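Model the whole thing, not chain by chain.
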Amino acid sequence: AQSVTQPDIHITVSEGASLELRCNYSYGATPYLFWYVQSPGQGLQLLLKYFSGDTLVQGIKGFEAEFKRSQSSFNLRKPSVHWSDAAEYFCAVDEQGGSEKLVFGKGTKLTVNP
Amino acid sequence: DADVTQTPRNRITKTGKRIMLECSQTKGHDRMYWYRQDPGLGLRLIYYSFDVKDINKGEISDGYSVSRQAQAKFSLSLESAIPNQTALYFCATSSRTEAFFGQGTRLTVV
């Protein structure tokens, strides 16, 4: 079955440390790829997206993600985490590349220690 | 004003009751969606609509119905609520490149 996998349910990092959140997908073609963030009590906000071209994409709040076709991955990174980054992060895939039907991973909750 | 507005934000209802969750958007997009979020399960698609006359079932449509009253309005109904429909519900609208989400409706069925 086609799916989006976020292997880490919960990650804890110290403020100032680097961060990498993993995302793998199982679709055959290259789908459209997204990362969303959900702060407590809030809706989802788009961090960044990849459709084609340069495989390293920059997003808001200092986040970046790299698409690796050979690994079917789209990992999210940030060089230095801030306490305000504590939230839940969702990887999502538009499997038909423009169909606008998003399939979400189960999310990774990020805790930031002072 | 928010791009996507959901009402109510919180609701407690009893088993067997009918309940409607409402969504309106000001982005001007044709496409609208209802998702359900459960802890540890991410977001799952309930229904989606690509225009007023086009409504489609998503992954978990059983027990739900929708109505697209206008381009800007898309409501979700639970005809006879049951406890396992307790969840956080999100409405969204999208362009071809980005989806915009409401702040969610937390529904509790007791």
